[in-house]
């Protein structure tokens, strides 16, 4: 039966003006109707490979080798010829649904444009086909949605629309570049199911680009592992997960954080002594966004009470819009409090006099999600770490320099890095710098907002290890915000599950994750893709049951 | 939306009020005064004092100002000092000419900018980009009166195909084709700097849009680049361009004074110029205030258009 593959990439190399090529030697074969996962960490060249297929490389990139679709060479085709292939034969779905749609055009308009590009000119026929497509990607009330603008849809719905656009002209190959990375776990599970069903129904072959081994185990038939622009290993999913040959693949699989099995018996963490004053305490806090006068105020946080004891790490989990980031910012006084009290070390921050408020806030530090955005690109690393010391005039200038070296050492970076600028560092190194800066004033409370979400799994594992280590050594309390339950499981003592601005469940991590009391927590836990291809069916069924 | 507009209206009124004080004070700070102009160089101090009293210029500043405001509120603009006739009728005579010329230039600049910048982005050839950017710099750098004179020399003197100046004898609306011939040279001279500034802005805005992820999505769907520029990028780049267009109206109003002088165009620009030379306070005050009002109203209008073009603002009222 050896049918010819629908897409064959041979010895693809992509180079920029920079010294190291982005892709060195990649050969991948995609069979009809299969789901192939292209796995690798950032910089491995997986996205560039996919973009090269459709001639969508950034300006200045040069690709050599061969990319054949149905025995037709795609590399080197001119724009006009490529436009015949793009969308019609091979389509692509991107990572960020928030920006992948035109904000000022309706969903219907954008679908009509996609259809028009490949010959469907009649408005009436296009409208019918658009409704059909929205129905295929399971968007409720498709007729009404045609007139919606992207900002009126949720992230998951936007990704469905992007998918509908890609499927508009019935392509044989779908390139999906991290299609679920920007989505909540529950939405991710639904989109993955949808991709699987589309493949079953239309026979479209899918190249799934991802860094998430859980996603791979969930859906892929075959896996190709990329490292630094080269294919290091490939194989059938079950076999590869069971017996990875290459050390790199083993590292990738080993760095995936796993949630505890319900069967695992975990020792109950001893509750911290109750008498100590909490590092931070929220007492029935409410936060509202929007103007109250117009009666349109949106409750971001409703009636939350939560304590973090000194030296305790409390994880905040929840889907986007659940209020976890708002709660973290509230501790630092970065959002206005509508009702309730925020107490830092037993003192009501807002009621305190200005000078005391300042000293209270000195004991509080922040680490943000994106180290690239949170470090000033014109400051050297040393200057960034020193800044809080300068502002609070800690010690003599010499002592401050010594402290910077000490802090760099604490986050396991050489002291010579003080003279470098953020762009010379990798993402993981930048996040270490952000951590060093946060610890400069020896805070009693650290608010960490998704500090490892922008990092690769192997880097994430090392940063989390460092964090745990520092936390034990320095004993600061921490509010650790993450959408990733496995990360919370790794670092937190206690966890609070947020939903729509309310705490639905709270308790020791081990207890909550193994024996959740609330359905919502269970649904979140079940939606986390498990890096084990053998458990595929079971999980999906449970998610479906709970969702209905 | 209504609330937003009302709040903007308040600040617009404040700006106008402050500007009226500024204008009133500024023209009195200009060296020379209407008394000297009216009485002539050889007048006796007694005669000068008499004229000064007659014009009310011997009153304290604030009293003069309040008096003027009172007159304005009754739409009584009073007689001019030197130019002859009632200020109201002087303005009424020139208003149509200036409005037609400025609007013509505004449309020319806007349409011209859309055409040149989309051409630059769709074409995207290196030579085309260098050429446009060179022309652009020239158009911004060369002063309006110079371009106006060159246009007259080339198209009215060397190759006499267009009239060198004046307004169409039969008015603007009786014979539009003739009117267009009269409008073309002053219109181009006036529009050129605004055209260039808008082109530069819009080209950059379009390029920024073309780097947005939604454009990659569209390209991956096989939609031709030209169509993406015209139907998607342009639509996203327009709202911010409208704001710049509103600001360019200031350039046009300022330019009108020079262009009307060169082309003997009997409009408000010329009236301002004559008024300032003759220190004819009532004429200049009202005209400057009028231009402030036009500018403020334009800003309001651009905000409304901006909001209306962006569905995120239009439907949610957030900005």
Automatic annotation (TrEMBL), chain B:
Main location class: membrane
UniProt key word Ribosomal protein: no
PROSITE patterns cross-referenced by the UniProt entry: ABC_TM1 (PS50928)
Residue span(s) of domain ABC transmembrane type-1: 95-302
InterPro entries: BPD_transp_1_N (IPR045621), MetI-like (IPR000515), MetI-like_sf (IPR035906)
Protein name: ABC transporter permease
Molecular-function annotations in GO: dipeptide transmembrane transporter activity
Chain segments annotated as transmembrane: 12-30, 99-123, 135-159, 179-202, 244-266, 286-309
Gene3D superfamilies: MetI-like
Membrane disposition: Multi-pass membrane protein
Domain of life: Bacteria
Pfam families (alphabetical): BPD_transp_1 (PF00528), BPD_transp_1_N (PF19300)
The UniProt record lists the keyword Membrane: yes
Originating species: Nocardioides simplex (Arthrobacter simplex)
Keywords annotated in UniProt: Cell membrane, Membrane, Transmembrane, Transmembrane helix, Transport
Any GO CC annotation of this UniProt entry: plasma membrane
Subcellular location: Cell membrane
Family: Belongs to the binding-protein-dependent transport system permease family.
